[in-house]
């Protein structure tokens, strides 16, 4: 399928109209045969339902397309060549995506790597290793540009191909300290969003992003996830999309491993290396990614739960949902009243942080699993002198265990105390 410029603008106007989400969009296309005719009919349909609706301003949509073009991006419409093939096969794929890419990374088979924002050094090291190995095997690494595991996976796969799916508009990067990483991915891989330019991400936009992360991917790997973690939302979407779900086991003493260990108990596949993933994906890689025969066939409605979109119920169609009562991100709030900027999750260490902040990040990266001191310094972006100073303080506090091979870990008592104090 290839849309004309006028049809593409109609698609954008329809999806940007008030209370039009993927399910309502599909219903309207099925009923009227095209976005242009649906836009013409929509005001009368809304009035018949006893309400009014704001149709997207066509000139604003034109300006959005022009601005996206100036950024080096383009609109990917469902069914067109530039739209990720695997995402077409999920229930209620986004009708349009804003995409910036310079290569064919979106045509590669993808594997999602997600996990804790507040990741340990061991988790970051594993994410880096598995991302590099998957990239070397010809896979695109997909993630959500979040702090911690996401960012580490993106950086490790820049040279081989990575895809960042963002929750806001492509000009509203969250978190803001990842602006340079975003630029690198846009230049060497692909950045993707279903939200309009200028859109500041809200709480509900993050699970929307998560379903795209899993939908683009043939498999999702979860590395460190607390029980109240947004990474588990990505895993659940992956399971609902009939994709492989992998989890990396962790110490039962580390709260950051509770969610992944629960996934393993509930049937997720154990992941100890990239080879585990490649072995499981061989049948799909051999036979090809299945695609739907009709992209606008009616899909099964999800369970009655929290809506992902505020959609018009024009023809008795239920909107897509996320599981009722399920926590949607690591701050544990539902519904989200605003951006995750207020979540209180500490950013990863970087050169702009004070020595005190870096020292706090080093403490947070430690857990029950032994980690190499050199890796700890590299991951924290800290000098070896500062790392040694922090480790000495912990040792004097009775919270540090030293092991052979320049490895260190928190003691069991020290780990509990560090986590409970937020240190």
The structural domain count equals: 3
- Assigned CATH architecture of the largest domain: 3-Layer(aba) Sandwich
Which strand order spans the largest sheet, edge to edge or round the barrel? 1-2-6-5-4-3-7-8-9
**Mean of the pLDDT scores?**
82
Q: Report the span from N to C terminus.
A: 53 Å
Q: Low-confidence stretches at least 5 residues in length (pLDDT < 50)?
A: 292-306, 315-351, 416-423
The helix-and-strand class reads: alpha/beta
Which H/E pattern describes the elements? HHHHEEEHEHEHEHEHEHEHEEHEHHEEH
| Shape annotation | elongated
**Main beta-sheet annotation:** 9 strands, mixed
Number of strands: 14
Instruction: Evaluate the radius of gyration.
Output: 22 Å
Instruction: Please bin the fraction of helical residues.
Output: 40-55%
The number of helical runs is 15
Write down the oligomeric state.
Answer: single chain
Can you tell me the CATH class of the largest domain?
A: Alpha Beta
Strand content: 5-15%
Q: Could you say what the CATH topology of the largest domain is called?
A: Rossmann fold
Brief sketch in words of this structure:
With 423 residues, this protein is an alpha/beta fold. It contains 15 helices and 14 strands.
Structure write-up:
With 423 residues, this protein is an alpha/beta fold. The protein has three domains: 5-68, no CATH class; 102-287, 3-Layer(aba) Sandwich (Rossmann fold), CATH 3.40.50.450; 355-421, Winged helix-like DNA-binding domain superfamily/Winged helix DNA-binding domain (Arc Repressor Mutant, subunit A, Orthogonal Bundle), CATH 1.10.10. The chain contains 15 helices and 14 strands. It has helices spanning 5-15, 22-32, 35-48, 58-70, 121-136, 149-156, 179-188, 205-216, 230-240, 258-265, 274-287, 355-365, 373-380, 384-396, 412-421; strands at residues 73-77, 96-101, 110-115, 140-143, 162-165, 190-193, 217-223, 244-247, 269-270, 306-307, 321-322, 371-372, 400-403, 407-410. The strands form three sheets. The protein has a nine-stranded mixed beta sheet, sandwiched between helices. β3, α5 (121-136) and β4 form a beta-alpha-beta unit. The longest helix is centred in the first third of the chain and has 16 residues, at 121-136. The chain is elongated, with a radius of gyration of 22 Å. The relative contact order is 0.12. The model is unreliable at 292-306, 315-351 and 416-423 (pLDDT under 50).
């Amino acid at each position: 399928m290839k849309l004309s410029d006028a049809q593409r603008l109609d698609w954008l106007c329809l999806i940007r109209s008030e209370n039009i989400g993927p399910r309502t969009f599909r219903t309207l296309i099925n009923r009227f045969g095209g976005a242009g005719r649906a836009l013409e009919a929509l005001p009368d349909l809304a009035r018949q339902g006893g309400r009014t609706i704001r149709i997207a301003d066509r000139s604003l949509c034109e300006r959005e397309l022009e601005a996206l073009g100036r950024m080096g991006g383009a609109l990917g419409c469902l069914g067109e060549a530039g739209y990720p093939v695997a995402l077409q096969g999920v229930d209620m794929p986004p009708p349009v995506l804003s995409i910036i890419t310079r290569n064919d990374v979106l045509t590669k088979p993808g594997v999602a790597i997600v996990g804790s924002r507040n990741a340990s050094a061991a988790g970051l090291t594993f994410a880096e290793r598995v991302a590099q190995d998957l990239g070397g095997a010809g896979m695109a690494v997909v993630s959500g540009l979040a702090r911690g595991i996401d960012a580490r996976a993106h950086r490790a796969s820049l040279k081989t191909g990575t895809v960042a799916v963002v929750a806001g508009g492509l000009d509203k990067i969250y978190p803001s300290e990842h602006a340079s990483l975003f630029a690198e991915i846009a230049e060497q891989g692909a950045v993707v969003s279903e939200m309009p330019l200028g859109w500041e991400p809200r709480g509900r936009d993050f699970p929307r992003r998560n379903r795209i992360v899993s939908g683009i991917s043939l498999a999702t790997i979860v590395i460190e996830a607390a029980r109240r973690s947004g990474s588990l939302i990505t895993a659940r979407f992956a399971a609902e999309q009939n994709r492989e779900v992998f989890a990396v086991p962790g110490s039962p003493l580390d709260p950051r491993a509770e969610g992944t260990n629960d996934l393993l108990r509930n049937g997720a596949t154990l992941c100890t290396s990239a080879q585990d993933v490649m072995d499981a994906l061989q049948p799909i890689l051999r036979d090809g990614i299945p695609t739907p025969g009709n992209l606008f066939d009616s899909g099964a409605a999800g369970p009655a739960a929290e809506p992902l979109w505020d959609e018009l119920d024009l023809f008795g169609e239920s909107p897509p949902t996320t599981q009722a009562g399920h926590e949607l991100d690591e701050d544990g709030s539902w519904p989200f009243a605003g951006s995750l900027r207020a979540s209180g999750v500490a950013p990863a260490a970087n050169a702009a942080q004070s020595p005190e902040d870096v020292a706090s990040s080093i403490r947070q990266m430690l857990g029950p699993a032994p980690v190499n001191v050199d890796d700890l310094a590299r991951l924290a972006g800290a000098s070896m002198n500062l790392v040694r100073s922090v480790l000495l303080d912990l040792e004097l506090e009775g919270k540090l265990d030293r092991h052979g091979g320049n490895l260190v870990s928190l003691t069991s008592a020290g780990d509990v105390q560090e986590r409970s104090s937020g240190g």
